[in-house]
Structure formats: structure tokens, C-alpha cells
Amino acid sequence: MRKPVIAGNWKMNKIRDEALQFVYAVGEKLPSNSQLDSIICAPAIILRDLVKRQGDNLRIGGQNMHAKECGAYTGEISPIMLKSTGVEYVILGHSERRQYFNETNETVNEKVLAALANDLRPIICVGESLEEREQNKTNEVLYEQVTKAFVNVDPKDIDDIIIAYEPIWAIGTGKVASSDMADEACGYIRSLIEKIFDHSIAERVRILYGGSVSTATVDELMAKEHIDGALVGGASLKEEDFIRLCESAVKVQKV
Ligand code: PGA
Question: Which pTM value belongs to this model?
Fold first, then answer.
């Protein structure tokens, strides 16, 4: 059985006080950790504060990290530093990082390996642009992104890895992919994992959909065979919405 996941991606939003208020407010109201992984990925500067107050049912993650453990990389944060804050997860290869900060499939792979080596659980983002979808290149793009992200990944680490399918045209635009479209892409990603590893590993890996997920669309998405949860930007910033998303996710159990 694949445990559902709701991961909030706060991006560059919320200062410390706002973030702490959120964590206190959602605290007791989240479903239990045995039913759901509820995760908030917050700006690096407040991670330690959030970890100290995360409570039993919330986990905290970073939004990016450098692949190297230390060195002359001004402004960067290493896997060891991230781990030392107490976070469990880190988003890697988000399309905004690929688009604005020149991340490539190769750097994403280096980061995935570095995260796993440092006991951090990567949430690996993949997804096509509007142009690529219109040119019927979605599968081609996903093939490149997924196969490259998993180079040299040890199959024993699969339970620590989450994949998020996030079509770029649906992020922050209000244009959510139809649940069938999202399920088809997540199913294709699962078939790639089967090719890279094997059937049982493909059945275990958790794949999320992301891109304008809201309380209005989450139920339909979660009902789909290959969608094990959501990576949520805008709707994860409001306490009530985040709680509602988490409640929806536990209603469906994937076998
Ligand atoms: P959105 O962002 O839910 O605001 O579209 C999703 C993401 O970028 O992870």
C-alpha cells in the first residue's frame, strides 16, 4: 500500500512568525502520520524553527540544496547543513529551479544522490512545458527527466524517494491538468520506474501531481490510480486549505 502524501511548497513566502503561526494552527488538526505524510517545504532560513515545533503529524522539508558537502559556493546550502536542521525532505529539480537557476537533469541527479547519501528524502520534480505538450513531447521530456534523475540510484532507497509530476503550464496558473491527463503522466512515470528497476519497485514508489491543486480539485486527483498525493504551492499557504487537502488525501488508500 502506498501511503498518501500532501507536500506544501511555500516557495519564497512567509517570514518566521507567519510560518510558526501556521505550524501551531495546523498542529493537532492534521491526520495522523500513520495515515499520511504531511510535509511543508519552507525557506531554508526558518527550517530549524519549524522542525522544533513541527508536532507529530507534520514533517518539514527544504526546497533545494547544493550537491556538494562543503566548499566555495557562496550563498548555497549543503546537504549536511540541511540535514543538521532536522528536516526529512528536500524538493529537487522544481521547474522554477530548472527555469530560473539553470538546473539540469544532470545537476538534479547529483543532488538526488547527495540527498540520499545524507539521509534526506528527495521529492524529485519533473514535467513538461506548454510548448512541449502541444508538440506531443510530454513522454519524451518525462523519459529524459526521470531516467537521468535516477542514474546510480540504489533500488533500496526507493521508499525514501517521492516523484512529483508538475506540468509547468499548470503551476501557479490556475490551469490544473485534468485528472485523466495527470493520471496518464503519473502512470507513464511509474512505467519508467518499472523499466529502470522492476515491477515491485514501481508499485511502491509514490508519485504526486502538482500544479494549481486546490481543495476543489484534490478529491478527483487523489481518486486516480497512479496519483498518490499532491505537491501544492498556492493552496498550501492557508492553514484551512492545507488541513482540508490532508483530510482529502487520507480518504483514498492506494493498493
Ligand atoms: P501551485 O504550485 O500549486 O501554486 O501551482 C505547485 C508547485 O510549484 O509545486
Answer: 0.97
pLDDT single digits (tens) 220-248: 999 999 999 999 999 999 999 999 999 99
Average pLDDT estimate for 30-59? 96
CB 123 within 8 A of CB 89: yes
**Average pLDDT taken over every residue of the chain:** 96
Determine the distance separating the centroid of ligand 1 and the alpha carbon of 171, expressed in angstroms.
5
* pLDDT confidence bin for 253, thresholds 50/70/90: low
Residue nearest to atom 6 of ligand 1 (CA): 233
Confirm whether 66 is a catalytic residue: no
Tell me what the mean pLDDT of segment 17-43 comes to. Answer: 96
Cβ–Cβ contacts within 10 Å for residue 125, how many?
28
From 94, 163, 171, 209, the mutation candidate for ligand 1 (largest count of ligand atoms within 8 A of CB) is 171
pLDDT at 175: 82
Write the DSSP string, 43-106. Answer: -GGGHHHHHHT--TT-EEEES---SSSSSS-TT---HHHHHHTT--EEEES-HHHHHHS---HH
Q: Give, in order, the Cα–Cα distances in Å from 213 to each of 6, 15, 154, 187.
A: 11, 23, 31, 18
Do residues 75 and 106 make contact, with C-beta atoms less than 8 angstroms apart?
A: no
- For the record, the C-alpha cell of 77 comes out as 546550502
Distances (CA, A) of 174 to 80, 195, 211, 222: 36, 33, 8, 18
